[in-house]
Amino acid sequence: MHSRALTQKLLLILLFSLCSYLVVGLGFHLKWKSELAACWQARASSGELPDSEVFSWPLALVFDVTWWPVYAWANTYHFGDPFATPCTRMESYPQKCDQECF
User: What is the pTM of this model?
Assistant: First the structure.
């Protein structure tokens, strides 16, 4: 009986950890999408064409919720902000070109 109670407690801890991970991932996805929408509006108001979506929303949601620690770490490491967008990247690495850069 004791091992069964221990197994149930461990499963409960695992379930709680998984739910917490997914909730934080969903929060990351929503925050990053709002930052991205603000970036697209800023770029559109300056006359630029914003980037298009790479993945449809269900697939993007799955990727963001699953891989949010990797995205947050990489963005923080490279750009100093876990929610880095193309606007953040342009501020971090401005292009110095007289003509269009490729």
Answer: 0.75
